[in-house]
Design a protein that fits this description.
single chain, globular, mainly alpha, about 0% strand
Length: about 120
């Protein structure tokens, strides 16, 4: 694992331990929390046009978006740790699968799902 990522994970684990929150952070609860935080992120963009989003982000909304993204990342790191998933390795493996499913010559500039290419 990347040194910076390891440092952040250690900070998160210390934070959680000090509050005795391990008991609440079972895999199901962490997965639920990821979805809930993702919904909060989506809410920051809901009902806004592209121009409204740009203005919103420039006028302070980016700070709220950043906090929601951080919340999602925190729960993903904790869940990965608790399940013994090497997050960096998992991302690299998934990227390789996606490269195979979405070859450049078929998918460049195309938003279709791999089975529709």
């Amino acid at each position: 694992m990347d040194k910076d990522l390891r440092t952040i994970l250690e900070m998160l684990l210390k934070f959680r331990r000090e509050r005795d929150w391990e008991q609440f952070h079972r895999p199901k609860e962490l997965a639920i929390s990821i979805v809930l935080e993702a919904a909060e992120l989506l809410e920051e963009f809901q009902w806004k046009t592209d121009d409204e989003i740009k203005k919103y982000l420039e006028e302070g909304g980016l700070e709220l978006v950043k906090e929601e993204v951080a919340d999602i990342a925190i729960y993903i790191l904790l869940l990965s740790n608790d399940l013994g998933i090497d997050l960096i390795k998992a991302i690299k493996e998934k990227l390789k699968k996606n490269e195979d499913k979405y070859p450049v010559e078929k998918s460049r500039g195309n938003a279709k799902k791999y089975d529709k290419l």
